[in-house]
Design a protein that fits this description.
The protein is mostly helical. It has three helices and no strands.
Length: 155
């Protein structure tokens, strides 16, 4: 009976040791999983805060633009009222026409007429009638003239 008791106690000690070893090895994984879960939660909270900050920024920007537009509209209305009260229509029209004449760009075409500004070209025009112009495949290449009899005499 004593041997049975000793075997039972030994089995209990061995079982407790194995249980502790198994719990210790799997417990490390659980701790790691808990740490990763905490990091994931922290990152999700940070991302949520960032999204809220971005949203708040754009809402504030939209409000500032609305106020800017309102201020611009008020200034425009103020200037329009002042112009209508302080200037006669003919004076205002003459002043606007003078400003347009002062700032107008002019271009004299081939016939010498002024008809606005010519848009820039994306090519070089021909200088002469026989010139190929910049868009030609052989633009800038010089024609090679064969030397007199150099190939035929070498044969």
């Amino acid at each position: 009976m004593e041997s049975m008791l000793a075997v039972g106690i030994a089995a209990l000690v061995i079982g407790l040791a194995l249980g502790w070893a198994i719990a210790r090895s799997t417990g490390g994984r659980n701790v790691r999983q808990r740490r990763l879960a905490q990091q994931l939660d922290a990152l999700q909270n940070e991302h949520t805060r960032y999204q809220a900050q971005v949203n708040e920024h754009f809402v504030e920007t939209a409000e500032l633009f609305r106020r800017l537009n309102d201020s611009y509209r008020e200034v425009h209305e103020h200037l329009a009222k002042g112009a209508s009260r302080l200037c006669t229509e003919t004076e205002a029209r003459e002043e606007l026409e003078q400003v347009q004449r002062d700032h107008k760009l002019s271009y004299k075409g081939p016939a010498g007429e002024e008809d606005g500004v010519e848009p820039p070209r994306d090519y070089a025009p021909r200088n002469t009638r026989n010139d190929n112009g910049m868009l030609s495949e052989d633009f800038g290449l010089k024609k090679e003239e064969p030397e007199n009899g150099s190939r035929s005499s070498a044969s």
